[in-house]
Predict the 3D structure of the following.
Amino acid sequence: MRVVRFCLSLLPLMITSGMFYSILPIYISKELNASEMVVGSLFTTGALTGAIVSIAVGKISDAIGRKSMIVLSQMFFGLVMLLYSVISNYVFAYPIHVLEGFAWATLGVNAPAYIADVSERKGEGLGVYNTVVHIGWVIGPLLGGFLAEFFGFRLMLRMAFVMIILGIILTVKEV
């Protein structure tokens, strides 16, 4: 049950990530006037950051604990949503993507490790986590598309921030 509660606490983040990643390239192109090459380089920046910091993040989580790192990751994702909602030029997106890459590395290392730490049936626990990730990615793109089309990209990003705050509260309370 603890694993299910933990995974459900991450559902708001997974929904917002589905919103964010499916709509973000359009936002960067339309609102921030970036070329396709710039969009690609932004996503590369985030992925490269994650690749560089993942081992260090794992070592830190071994020292200070998984829960604090998971909450830190959620906080960084919330900050990414807020920052994206206020920038006016794609140049400012590069440092945001560095933060985003760090946030994904932190979550990617710590969520499965936490599940392995607290679960007797690790495979089943990771299956629950994976299911929640996919549910978020089923709901997120539709919700993000709806919010962006009818209320604008910036409101969509601010709604994502609110959802992440809800997830942080659930994580702190339930984990």
